[in-house]
Amino acid sequence: MKAITLVESDNPKRPDLVWDEVERPSLAAGEVLVEVKAAGVNRADLAQRAGAYPPPEGASEILGLEIAGVVADPGDSDYAVGDKVCALLAGGGYAEYAAVPAGQLLPVPEGWSFTEAASIVEVATTVWSNIVMTAHLEKGQTLLVHGGGGGIGTFAIQLGKALGCTVAGTAGSAEKVELMTQLGADVAINYKEQDFAEVMRNKCNVILDVVGGSYLDSNVKALAMDGTVTIIGLIGGPKGELNVGRLLSKRGTLAATTLRNRSTEDKAEIVRQTQQGVWPLLESGEISQQISTVLPITEAAEAHRIMAKGEMTGKIILEIS
């Protein structure tokens, strides 16, 4: 099969992305072989390319954490050849075929294309596992979403509204602020013009944070009593200052999670709960896909450039013909 391979370049931290021949994956027990039609692009892919986020032991070295396609070989699972599926991966998505643990497969939502389905798996499982399973967001509470114009953010805003919450979002451009408003955000903050910690001071029951260190203390200022900050990214760096006294006074919780290095059992449970909680909202249209850019897989390097520059709202998808 063909897949995107990492080839040494003039920049050791930025190898070239080349569509080349590689060995097709063989199935282990409990795995399904999927013929990939589309793959989502995530910041984790850029980090892996730079050598900063290696795949878990035993996972494919090929980039790509989410796909959509058809079952080519069901292995020992209950799936059938030709079933339309999307999947959460530990690696291997930028390829013509991917081996996936059966518990990490989901049906393509009714009415959704392969390209659309590939845009939703990583964001849906990440957001659901963090704001619902970890932070226990409830109807009537207030959710603050950082990076509200990106793939995670645009989904989280819609999910928060679907769950009956007041939703605030932060972004760095007028275009992204407008998009957040269109998606239902009750408060849309341009962080270059406003201090979100002052706007949302003491109001947020749950904060979904892709920024990390530089937002740490400001997040605690925005937190309500008994609130939870869930940190899922480090765009703003790995280190920050924290007023522990303020966190104590609010009985606040800091949670930091990753999805990729969880066990297959944990991922299967997250996938199961995500399908149960989110798929009806996708199929009813209450949550819509937010795809910014679609490119052929051979232009993976351009997809990475767009993401690195932040030149997108929503998701970037690679199609495989």
Structure description:
This protein is of the alpha/beta class. It has helices spanning 43-49, 114-118, 121-134, 151-162, 174-182, 196-199, 216-222, 244-249, 264-284, 300-309; strands spanning 2-7, 16-21, 31-41, 66-73, 84-88, 97-101, 105-107, 142-145, 166-171, 187-190, 204-209, 223-231, 253-256, 291-296, 315-319. Strands 3, 4, 5, 6, 7, 14 and 15 form a seven-stranded mixed β-sheet that branches. A six-stranded parallel β-sheet has the order 10-9-8-11-12-13. β14 (291-296), α10 and β15 (315-319) form a beta-alpha-beta unit. α3 (121-134) crosses α4 (151-162) and α3 (121-134) crosses α9. The longest helix is centred in the C-terminal third of the chain and has 21 residues, at 264-284. It starts with a strand and ends with a strand. The model has no long low-confidence stretch (mean pLDDT 96).
How would you summarize this macromolecular structure in one to three sentences?
The protein is 30% helix and 27% strand. It is of the alpha/beta class and 321 residues long. The strands form three sheets. Strands 3, 4, 5, 6, 7, 14 and 15 form a seven-stranded mixed sheet that branches.
What is the secondary structure topology, with strand pairs?
Blueprint: E1 2-7, E2 16-21, E3 31-41, H1 43-49, E4 66-73, E5 84-88, E6 97-101, E7 105-107, H2 114-118, H3 121-134, E8 142-145, H4 151-162, E9 166-171, H5 174-182, E10 187-190, H6 196-199, E11 204-209, H7 216-222, E12 223-231, H8 244-249, E13 253-256, H9 264-284, E14 291-296, H10 300-309, E15 315-319
Parallel strand pairs: 8-9, 8-11, 9-10, 11-12, 12-13, 14-15
Antiparallel strand pairs: 1-2, 3-4, 3-6, 3-15, 4-5, 5-7
Helix pairs in contact: 3-4, 3-9
